[in-house]
Amino acid sequence: MDLKTVCNKGIKHGQRKRVGRGVGSGLGKTSGRGHKGWGARSGAPRRPGYEGGQMPIYRRVPKRGFTNARFRRDYTIINVDRLNAFADGDTVDLAGVLSHGLASLSAPLLKVLGSGELGRKLVVRAQKFSASARAKIEAAGGTVVELDERGREAGAGQPADAPDQAATPDQAGGAVE
Q: What is the largest CA-CA distance in the chain?
């Protein structure tokens, strides 16, 4: 035991290093900077990744090819067997999965995978389904609703009251007899 530990009183952070206080302290004279050289001088910063003049690793490794990481879409994943936590006839979406604590939010999109069995009739709304998950949900009597990235139904591109896209002859500028 020494004075430093007695005065510490359970404080989380220890005392800072006192440098340049005589050779007997262990950090006197050169204050832990060594003799001469770049690091011994004042105002000599060390940038991240500096390796003492050795060719840095970011220059040693080859950089070739293309990565699609910037454009990758991440999904919150859930397996079909976890959906048994819902009651019969419930609608399952990302908000419901999160509120039941079945998955943690890793991305704002939901993907359902087909591991396990489903014993409930559910309406499952998600952006992606594996083929086996889709088959198991429909085999249990449930419904699969595929959503786009904004959470709207994928097939619902235009409102129900909008006119058909096929142009009639009078709309196309042709003469009507």
A: 110
Tell me the C-alpha distance between 130 and 117, whole Å.
14
β-strand partners of 54: none
Residue 128 main-chain phi, psi, to 5 deg = -140, 150
Q: How far apart are CA 26 and CA 29, in angstroms?
A: 9
CATH number of the domain at 71-146, out of 3.100.10.10, 3.30.420.40, 1.20.1260.10, 2.40.420.20?
Answer: 3.100.10.10
pLDDT digits (tens, 9 = 90+) for 83-114: 999 999 999 999 999 999 999 998 999 999 99
85 contacts: CB under 8 Å, gap ≥ 6: 100, 102
Q: Where are the domains of the chain?
A: 71-146
Phi, psi of 7 (to 5 degrees): -75, -10
For 14-71, the pLDDT digits (tens) are 778 899 999 888 899 999 888 998 888 888 887 888 888 899 999 999 988 888 888 9
Rounded distance between C-alpha atoms, residue 92 and residue 96, angstroms: 6
pLDDT value at residue 46: 79
Contact residues for 65 (Cβ-Cβ < 8 A; gap 6+): none
